[in-house]
Amino acid sequence: MRISTAQFYESSAANYQKNFAKVVKSSEEASSLVRVNTAADDPVGASRLLQLGQQASLLDQYKTNTNSIKASLGQAESVMTSINNVLARAKELAVGAGNAGYTDADRLANASELGQIEEQLLSLMNTQDENGKYIFGGSKDDVPPFSRNSDGTYSYNGDQSSLKLPVGDTMSMAANSTGWDVFQQALNTSRSQVTRTAPAVDDGRVSLSNGQVNNSGSFNKSFRSGEPYNVEFVSGTQLKITDVNGNDVTSEASQGGVFNTSANQTVSFRGVDLTLNVNLKAGEDPNAVLPGHQFSLAAKPDTFNVARSPGNPSTAQVTGTSVTDKAAYNASFPSGAAVLKFTSATAFDLYAAPVTADSKPVSSGTLAGNVATASGVSFTLSGTPGANDQFSVAVNTHETQNILDTVSQLRTALSTPVTGNTIATQKQLADLASGIANLASGADQLAIAISSVGGRGQALDTQTEINTSLADANVKTRSAISDSDPAEVMTRLTLQQTMLQASQLAFSKIAQLGLFNKV
């Protein structure tokens, strides 16, 4: 086989370039100690490095999210702890006001401090973060979550959405605590009411307070199924309780409905504690004057707070609300909040709040005089509404009570003079007992929220440890794939340099065998 001089030079040059490229590449690898620079260096390794790089980016984002959540939770816990301390002071004032030695002036002083506490609570519950966002508003963090209504009650303007951020591959965590969960869900122990039905004019001999719920299970299961109840005094020592169907259920009352003529007696019935005071005049026979006194006992009916939209074309206002069809109300009225919207001066629709572009009305109708009735609720209006008039309707079921309302009610009770008035004093004591119980309920709900923040903090610490371990493993795995072994690289480089030198020497020796060298 003959090889031409041109073929020999081309083959030698190609081999030399190939060996030289290997030396250059190994030299660069020896300098950087990075084995995989392109996918061509190691296709499988390059693919794995890409996956590991994506994981590293996610872990960095998880770390950023974790730090953000920790900061938010820290601020929320600090504010909630301050609120808890304020509530403790409110409870001290309420308990102290029940002191028999207190005068109206003393109680008024406590009421004044409760007014300051009320303002302080409102400010704390509307706390903003460093970006001006309201921390208890849920996803509606651009408006104050709590506001005072015209009647002195309070409304929650936020929503129930928790802002969740991913902190792990399969774990997301709420960065906030909503005002709905923290302050709106405290059980209202004062959700039953007593109304005197006989005699028509109060003679002051019998005072029966609104009840305090001592067992929510019994109240919801047994009490609600038989209301309204009729409480009748049939003798000077016995009362009788009948349910809505006329059934005698007195046996379920404490002591079978037997009472005495002492003050501040407790009558327990189906999860409700009632305070009974019998106020006899000197020489009166209880068997002669107490029979015939009757009271109606039931859960407090739902109430509504209606606010006119600032952009309404007309000046019409809703001046009164009432449930006129209980079955329709229970069946279709939106729970929580609704929007009453007029499409003309007489036609209206009722929507569940919030209203969106695809919202459908739950009820529609036309005005009857100045009354709009939707889903069993009648709204009395003053003035003529116009098309596009809207009214926000907040529903108060009395199942729960905002701590702001509790403090406000306590302040009102202590501001009322009662000195020398036995009936007023007994009512005030009942109001104090109600307020103290609801303060305790609010503090319990707040404690649950603080515990939730602490639990999330612990979960974040655990997840942080997991993410740190994953990040360390990620770095080690990437290093194992992409980094070079210095000893192996230097050995390979020495071999390749030797082969390059050998190819250079072989080329020079073989080049001397040409015929031109023999001429």
From TrEMBL:
One GO biological process term: bacterial-type flagellum-dependent cell motility
Superkingdom assignment: Bacteria
InterPro entries, A to Z: Flagell_FlgL, Flagellin, Flagellin_N
Cellular location(s): Bacterial flagellum; Secreted
This protein's record includes keyword Transmembrane helix: no
Cellular component annotations (GO), alphabetically ordered: bacterial-type flagellum hook; extracellular region
Main localization category: other
Domain Flagellin N-terminal: 3-140
GO molecular function: structural molecule activity
Keywords on record: Bacterial flagellum, Cell projection, Cilium, Flagellum, Secreted
Record NCBIfam families: flagell_flgL, PRK12717.1
Family designation: Belongs to the bacterial flagellin family.
Protein name: Flagellar hook-associated protein 3
Protein's organism: Pseudomonas chlororaphis
